[in-house]
Design brief:
It is a single chain. The chain has 126 residues and is an all-beta fold. It is 0% helix and 45% strand. The chain is built from no helices and eleven strands. Strands 2, 4, 5, 6, 9, 10 and 11 form a seven-stranded mixed sheet that branches. The termini are far apart. 33% of the residues are buried.
Length: 126
Amino acid sequence: QLQLVESGGGLVQPGGSLRLSCAASGFTLAYYAIGWFRQAPGKEREGVSCISSSGVSTNSVDSVKGRFTISRDNAKNTVYLQMNSLKPEDTATYYCAVRISAPCSRNYFTLSMDYWGKGTLVTVSS
């Protein structure tokens, strides 16, 4: 059974850091680009970052550039999101998701994803 499981969320003070993980099971993640999305309370879900299957190419939305870094370890079937300099507006539930056969491009965030994790909550507050 194909599954994505996020972890690493929690409460952090503004300016702090967290690293989120997305572990895949039931399929070989190395074949696919994958993205991180987030949904803040009362807001629509938005794309955050995506990474190509090889890990060579990434795309991120402007609001997280320079602060968030997406990476992957295909040997561990896991993707990471390192989040630094966190702001209260980063508070959201973070999801990883895969669209089979879609490359990581700016359009990736507009596509309908095939598989979603259940999310991990990140709260940035003093």
